[in-house]
Design a protein that fits this description.
The chain is an alpha/beta fold. The chain has 13 helices and twelve strands.
Length: 331
Amino acid sequence: MVGIKDIAKAAGVSVSTVSNALNGKKNVGEKTREHILALCKEMSYYPNAAGKSLKNGDANTILFNFSDFDRNFYLDIINGISDYASDNDFDLMICPKKSCEKFMRSGLTSGCIVLDMQMKNDLLLDVASENYPIVLLDRYIESPYMKSIVVNSYTPMAELVQGVIERGYKRFAFLGGPENTDDNKERYRAFMDVLDSNHINFSGKNYYSGDYRQKSGYMAAKIMILSDEVPDCIVCANDNMAIGAMKALKEGGYKVPDDVAVTGFDNSVLAEPMGLTTVDIPDYERGYMAAQYLIENIRGNMDTEPLKISAKVLWRKTVGHGDSVKNRHKR
């Protein structure tokens, strides 16, 4: 691979002269500059873009940080971020989990979109600045340098649970995600508020903690079956857990929705083919908006007013209707 020393040797000049020529410094003669540029082209030498950005402090790269690759809704968010970034001549770096801290602090990136609850608030507050804005998805931190974009989970979850009740369901289980996350808290709060307003009792033993992965939904449903505590309807805080629960129910000889209804939240890629009643979150659009706000903030047009985006209920075949629910209660 050709390096800057090879170009300097071929041109018969010092490395610093080559560097100055490539960076447009005025202390290099025009003929020398043209000769060096011609050699670079001839020898297929391309200056290190990361190195230049570190030196000049003008990296046109944004960072997207997320927790893992197990939840496929990330792909839609990434596509939205990538499309806006590309249209505005920004590169995109994707980095899961805590390892992205070094890319925040190194000068390789100009700002970050964060969708990883493992990233501590204190770290983000320390990193965020006028020169390094951050956009948060599904989290709110008060800061003059951070923009929060959150899904309004409460309204569609309340609509979903009310609709399930109106279809005749009376006994519920709730399968939650990580209990410290804002989205899980809001979805559970909506669930409980609707049950309370309909005078339906809910026992704490029917709350099952998961981690938004299929396996945790599968295990929760297995426990319900083994404990003979299968309800009329399992309300899940996301689709992955709902799909895992449906798998366990099928293995246990239960039919959905004839024996038990199941709902999710996210409208993941598997939700439609499996007929899962869920809530559709516009992931591509929120990724696009996150990139838009971040790049505008990088350009100095700072906007840190929190933004809530709407989501809608999609009724599918995992929730029964009318007579099918009444017939189930007779069995």
